[in-house]
Amino acid sequence: MLGAAVLAVLFMAALLPVLRGAFVIALEEVIETRLAADAAALVAAARTDSGHLVMPEKLPGEEFDKLDASLLGYIYDRDGRLLWQSRSTLGEPVQYVPRYDGIGHEFLRIGGETEGFFVYDVEIDLLRGQDTALSIVTMQPTRDYQVMYRGFMDQLYLWLGVALVVLLGLLWFGLTWSFRSLRGLSAELDEVESGHRESLSEEHPRELLRLTRSLNRLLDSERRQRERYRHSLDDLAHSLKTPLSVLQGVSEAMADQPQNREQAQTLQSQVERMSQQVGYQLQRASLRKSGLVRHRVQLGPLLDTLCEALDKVYRDKQVQVLRDFAPDLGVPMEQAALLELLGNLLENAYRLCLGQVRVAARQVGGSCELWVEDDGPGVPAEQRERILRRGERLDALHPGQGIGTAVVKDIIDSYDGELSVDASELGGACFRVRLSE
Length: 437
Fold this sequence. Notes:
Blueprint: H1 2-45, E1 47-49, E2 52-54, E3 72-77, E4 82-85, E5 105-110, E6 117-127, E7 130-141, H2 146-178, H3 180-194, H4 206-255, H5 261-286, E8 297-298, H6 299-313, E9 320-324, E10 330-331, H7 335-352, E11 356-364, E12 367-374, H8 404-414, E13 418-423, E14 429-436
């Protein structure tokens, strides 16, 4: 609409000098016609006597005889000497000398805009059957038409302004009516992104049907691929679970024999490590952001579920979880992904805290920020980047492979988010997550 409005204003601005020029041309044509008629009246009244010009006392055009009239008349010979002038020319400072050059007639403007004159100069070489060489000149001051010109320009500005307003209204109506189908398509896409609709409808103009059908094919392909991916991961997890269980049983049987106890412990630790790595890789592969469908999960209920489970695991600590977010705040992430992300961050906070954990979230501009803080020992500034790498751990007192934080970072990266580690006001570490809407 802004672009159309700019074009409309530019069109009106370009139209203004065109209309003004057309009016000036039409006005000058009218003036020329009138002055030509007045010159013809002087020619009809003129006669010669013994080679001398003779003009009647009373001319046919009364305006030539009025002192305050705006119509002026002059007659010159071929050498530019003034032979006759009308009474209306008295007191008019006209500086004009005709040129008898055989052109016939000439219309021009002399002087300035306010003190100038329109001049019609016609040459005659035959008067009442006698050879002669005269220049008949009629004039009219330009000031007589200034009022008319200003009035026309005022009306032109007014009506062009009205036309511009009407044109902008029509453009707004036309664009609004034309783009209503796109608004409908946009609304359906919003429903698809929010998960309330699986595909786009066919109730769109013919020009958009190819687009909607292509988007529907893309949605269906994505949905099928995601399902095949999930089924393949489930099959892989199931196929790996059995061999690992067998190895775990073998290690337990070996542990009952004193001579094999050391080998059994090594085997058990490696089996446990394999199990954790397999779980990590499966989580990393499955927790990916959808291409077209957007999700939003309420943070409060999900946090209740996680805290309830962690309170049972760390019941000896009696951890107090502080909440600092709106009750209806939603995080732009799939539920499984958010459960895995927040579960890892909270598990680290529960494990390392002294007694307090705080979870805060805010909507900042076009993004959602999430903080998980604790009052534990914290993370030294020089070690904060290292713990985000896979397999890096600072806590050597508890078992694990150091992949929990790496899972969190992979999930955030898949959503084009950011993860950073800072010092918390509680005294421990603060894990800050930033997700785009």
